[in-house]
Specification:
The protein contains six helices and seven strands; from the N terminus they run ααβαβαβαββββα. It is an alpha+beta fold. The strands form two sheets. The protein has a five-stranded mixed sheet with strand order 2-3-6-5-4. A two-stranded antiparallel ribbon has the order 1-7. It is globular and about 50 Å long. The structure holds zinc ion (ZN) (2 copies). The site of one zinc ion has 4 residues, from β3.
């Protein structure tokens, strides 16, 4: 889970081959180990805590701007859909916070961005049903399942930097452009998001969108998940 930005796909909680691959990637990229062993030993756990500290998440930037809800929606519309098909894309539920996988991926994205001399920030995250109505928006992706990342930096144009960051997230964080494969993090293509990077977990199966994966503050994000 906390290594979501290092190959990670879904929060399955099992320590399997996928986890070992994530730990190996983390040991190579963050711990700079010459021969990563893929075991989550005490040294690696301490390094994950250092990684979290070095790549902050500002929850003020994640809150809904509507001014009515408490910041992360009101938990309304669970199991209600905008169309007859009960697909996540039409799900109206205001999830209780931002999905943890997005924020841990954002942390890894900061690591990769820093290597290129860029700084990342969040330009938009939670947008509840009220905020959607205020802006005549129908997509419910930003009901906790999406963040929009901005890049501050030089070298190329904002568009080419956004394309580069999408490429990095595909390569390093196992994200996909679009939503075709289940259980992968999704990036909006450049024609939808030219000057920002939209990352979401809409294509996750329902069990990976359980309430416990959504967080409203740093303590919850940094907690070791049960
Ligand atoms: Zn709101
Ligand atoms: Zn977005």
């Amino acid at each position: 889970m906390r290594l979501a930005g290092f190959r990670g796909t879904i929060p399955d909680g099992d320590y399997g081959p996928g986890t070992e691959m994530q730990v190996t990637a983390f040991q190579r990229l963050f711990m700079r180990m010459a021969a990563p062993h893929g075991r989550a030993d005490a040294e690696t756990m301490a390094a994950i805590a250092d990684f979290a500290k070095a790549n902050p998440v500002d929850f003020k930037l994640l809150r809904c701007p509507c001014g009515v809800c408490p910041g992360f929606g009101r938990g309304k519309f669970k199991d209600e859909y905008r169309r007859p098909e009960r697909l996540e894309v039409y799900h109206l539920y205001e999830y209780p916070g931002i999905h943890r996988m997005l924020l841990w991926t954002y942390r890894a994205a900061q690591l990769h961005a820093r290597a290129r001399g860029w700084t990342l920030t969040i330009n938009s995250a939670y947008r509840c049903a009220i905020d959607n109505a205020n802006h005549q928006r129908t997509s419910t992706n930003h009901h906790g399942k999406a963040i929009d990342i901005d890049i501050i930096g030089s070298g190329g144009t904002d568009r080419t930097r956004c394309n580069s960051l999408r490429g990095i997230l595909v390569e390093q964080a196992h994200a996909q452009i679009g939503w075709s494969a289940p259980d992968r993090k999704s990036l909006e293509p450049a024609d939808i998001a030219p000057t920002w990077v939209h990352l979401d977990v809409r294509s996750y199966q329902r069990k990976y969108l359980a309430d416990r994966y959504f967080v409203k503050d740093l303590a919850a994000l940094d907690a070791v998940p049960a």
